[in-house]
Amino acid sequence: MVAFGKYLQRKQIEEWRGYYINYKMMKKKVKQYAEQIRGGSQHPRHVLKDFSRMLDTQIEKTVLFMLEQQGLLSGRLATLRETHDAVLEQPDISKIVELRESYRDVGRDLLQLLVFVELNAIGLRKILKKFDKRFGYRFADYYVKTRANHPYSQLQQVFKHVGVGAVVGAISRNLHELQEHEGSFYSIYDQPVLPLQDPVVEAIKTAVDKLTNSTSFLNFLAQHALIMQDDLQTPSEDTIDERTYHFNSLLLNLGNTFLYMVNTYIIVPTADDYSMSLGAAATVCGIVIGSMAVAQVFSSVYFSAWSNKSYFKPLVFSSIALFIGNLMYALAYDANSMWLLLLGRLCCGLGSARAVNRRYISDCVPLRIRMQASAGFVSASALGMACGPALAGLLQVKFKIYKLTFNQSTLPGWVMAVAWLFYLVWLCISFKEPLRDTEDQERSNPNETTSVTEREENSRAVEEGLRKPLLITSGLKVEDEDEEDCDESEESAEDSRRPANSFGDAYRLLTPSVKVQLLIYFMLKYAMEILLSESSVVTSYYFGWTTSSVAIFLACLGLTVLPINILVGSYISNMFEDRQILLTSEIIVFIGILFSFNLFVPYTVPQYVISGLVMFVAAEVLEGVNLSLLSRVMSSRLSKGTYNGGLLSTEAGTLARVVADATITLGGYLGRNHLLNATLLPSLVICIGSIVATCCTYNSLY
Predict the structure, then answer these.
(1) Which of 134, 243, 392, 671 is 20 to 30 A from 642 (CA-CA)?
(2) Helix, strand, coil tally for the chain in percent (to 5)
(3) Cα gap 326→349, rounded to integer Å
(4) Is the dihedral of CA 21, 24, 25, 26 positive or negative?
(5) 3-class SS at 401?
(6) In angstroms, rounded to a whole number, what is the distance separating the alpha carbons of residues 306 and 584?
C-alpha cells in the first residue's frame, strides 16, 4: 500500500508531468475548505462552486493535452499510410513486417495515453471521494452526472473518446490489411480462415471499453438488479476465466428467473375463483398468493448458502420443487382440498432460486459482460411479470381427461409443471458447473511465464494498468497520505473484505441511509402487491370484470416496466439527482394510493385504472432509483457470502409481499365492500412514513 500522490508521481511520464491533474494541490485545497467552513469564513455553497471550478480547470488541462496527443498520433498514422501505399504497390515482406511494427508502436503509444487518462481519472475519483468524506455531501454523484452528458463538458470528451476510436480503427484496419497481404505469399492453409486481431489492438479495445461511466439504460438496469460487486474489484483482478464462462448456463440462469416470475403471477387473475371453488372466501386468494412469498423468505437463505458450493444442484432442486408444487396446485381442484392448494404454493416458494440467479451473475459472469447479464436479469423478471397474467388470460378453456379437470383455475398449474419439466431436462443437458478452484490452480502454476522480453513486459504492464473502470472503483492499491483519513475509516482493510456471517452482522453494516432505502423498498413492494393481488377481487366486485379483463389489466401493468426503466435510465436520471427522483416518486406513489380510495363518489373504472397505473409506474421508477442507490452505498462486505446485499433486498421485498397478502385476507373479514379501503390504508401510512424518513435524511445522507 502506497500513497496515491506518490504513486501518481512515480507513474507520471516526465515530459507529460505538467498535464496531470494536480492531486496534491486539490487535496490541500479540500483541507483548507474544511478549516474555512469550521471557522465560518466560507459558506458551503461558495465552497462547492469554487471546488467545481477548480475541477473543471484541471480536467480541461488534461483533456486538451489528450486531444493534442491524439492529433500527433493521427499525424504519425497519416505518414505511415503513405509508406503503406508504397509497400502495397511493390510488396516486400521485410518492409511489411517493419510497417506492422510501426503501427504497433503507435498502438503502444496510444496505450500510454490511455494510462495517462486513467491515472487522472483515478485521481479525480479519489479527490471527489475525499471531498464527500470531509463534508458529508454526495458531491461526486452531482459532479459526474452533470458533466458526463453535458455537450460543453470536457469530461464528455473522456467519456465518448471519439478521437481514440478513430485512431484505434485506423491501426486495426491497416494491421489487418498487412496481415492479409503478408498471407498472399503463403498458401491459404498456412493461416487461420479468420485471423485473430493483433494483441495490441485487442488491448486498446479492452482499455477503451473500460473508460466509460456515463449513465445509460443498460447500467441503470444492471443496478436495478442489485447484483452486488466487491468495491475493490476491477477487470484486471477479475478471477473469472472467459474460456470457462458458459453462455448456455447463463441463459439457463435467466430462464429460471423468467419462469419463476411467470409462476408467481400466472395465478393472480384466477386465485379468487379457485379459492371459492374449494369453499373458501374470495379474499383467501391473499393467502394463496402470499404462501409462495412466505416460503421464499426461508428459501432465499438456504439457496444463498447453497450457492457457496454449487449452482447446478440448487437450480435442479428449484426446478423439482416448482414442478411438484405446480402439480399439487393443479390437483387440489379434483381433490377438493384447500390445504393441498396451499402446500403446492408453499412448495413453489421453496423453489425460489432468485438468490442463486443473482449470485451466479455476480460470481460466474466475466466483468466485461456482467452489466449486460444484470440487465438481462431485470428484463427477464419484467417479462415474466407481464407474461404470467397474459398467459392466464389465454387459458380460458375447460375439459376433462379421465378424472383430471383442466380449467382456468387448474391450467396455470399444469402449464407451469410442464414448463418446469422441460426446463429441468434442458438444465441437466446444457448447464455447466463453474470451476471454483481458480486460486489453487494459480498457485500450482507459479512459473507459468518466465521468459518474457522487456518490451512484452512493459506492454503487458500498460495493458493491465488500463483494464480498470473510469471514475469508479480502482484496483490500484494506494491510500491517501492523511493518517486522519485512515482513522476515519469505519472498517480495516481486512474487515472490508470479510463477508457478513449472519443477518445481525449484515444489519450492523447498514448505514442510516441504507435502512431508509430498505424501508422505501418495503413500502413500494407492499403497495404493488396490494394492487396486484387484490385486483381480481376488487374488479369483480365493483366492475364485474372477467378473468380475461383482469389478465389484460395486469399484463399491461407488467409491460410498463421496461419502457419506464428506459425513460428513467436514459433521460430522467441524467437531468435530476437520484434523491430528487426518489422523493418525487414517493410523493406520486402517495397520490396514486390516495386517489385509489373509494370514499364519497361511486367507484369507477377510470378512477381505479388511472390511480393504479400512476401508483404502479411511480413505484417502478422508485424501485429502479432506490436499488441503484443501494448498489452504490451498501458496504463492500455485503458483496460476497451468504448474507449479501442481494439477499437483504430480496428478504425486504418478500416480507413486504407476505404482509400485503396477509392484509388482503384479514381485510376480507370486513367484507368485500370494505376490502379496498382496508388494504389501502396501511399502504398510505407506510408511504407517509417513508416520505418522512426520506425528508429527514435528504440533505445529509443522499
Answers:
(1) 243
(2) 75, 0, 25
(3) 11
(4) positive
(5) strand
(6) 39
Higher pLDDT, 25 or 462: 25
Q: In terms of Cα–Cα distance, which of 688, 546, 676, 540 is closest to 611?
A: 676
Written as nine digits, the cell of 240 is 473469472
Q: Say how many Å lie between the first and final Cα of the chain, rounded.
A: 30
Tell me the Cα Rg of the chain: 29
Of residues 655, 635, 654, the one with CA closest to residue 643: 635
Q: For the chain, what is the mean pLDDT? A: 78
CA distance 350 to 293: 9
Residue 476 pLDDT level (bands cut at 50, 70, 90): very low
d(CA 514, CA 518): 6
Backbone angles phi, psi at 184, to 5 degrees: -70, -15
Residues in the chain: 702
Higher pLDDT, 218 or 128: 128
Asked if residue 132 lies in contact with residue 138, where contact means CB atoms within 8 angstroms, the answer is yes
Q: Helix, strand, or coil here: 240?
A: coil
**Rounded-to-integer distance, Cα 644 and Cα 73, Å:** 47
Helix (H) / strand (E) element for 301: namely helix 285-306
Q: Please report the sign of the dihedral spanned by the C-alpha atoms of residue 97, residue 98, residue 99, residue 101.
A: positive
DSSP string, 222-239: HHHTT----TT--GGG--
Q: Looking at 227-231, 295-299, 360-364, 435-439, which range is the least confident one?
A: 227-231
For residue 623, the model assigns a pLDDT of: 82
Q: Answer yes or no: is pLDDT of 572 > 90.
A: no
Cβ atoms of residues 530 and 664 within 8 Å:
yes
pTM of the predicted model as reported, rounded to 2 decimal places? 0.66
